[in-house]
């Protein structure tokens, strides 16, 4: 269940980051409110996942989901730059996330 919490926390992170951009510096009420609510939800779910997952694994994957997700949202909805270097960077982050996930399953 910890992995489900972690993925949901990452999705909420993407939402709050996007809504933070839309809030125009917290000057717009609805996007600001959505930002705060999804931040609380994201942190809450992250904390639940950390009950059983290692700190480095949970936090690393949470931030990675947020980073890659906001990268994709920025391109799709905000017209942000898409370049070979940014795509390679996103692929490397995803590779790191997979390695982090699979390495956390093994004890040395």
Automatic annotation (TrEMBL):
One of its GO terms (biological process) is xenobiotic detoxification by transmembrane export across the plasma membrane. InterPro entries: EmrE-like, Small_drug/metabolite_transptr, Small_multidrug_res. It comes from the Bacteria. GO terms for cellular component: plasma membrane. One of its GO terms (molecular function) is transmembrane transporter activity. Keywords: Cell membrane, Membrane, Transmembrane, Transmembrane helix, Transport. Belongs to the drug/metabolite transporter (DMT) superfamily. Small multidrug resistance (SMR) (TC 2.A.7.1) family. Gdx/SugE subfamily. This is Guanidinium exporter. It comes from Cohaesibacter celericrescens.
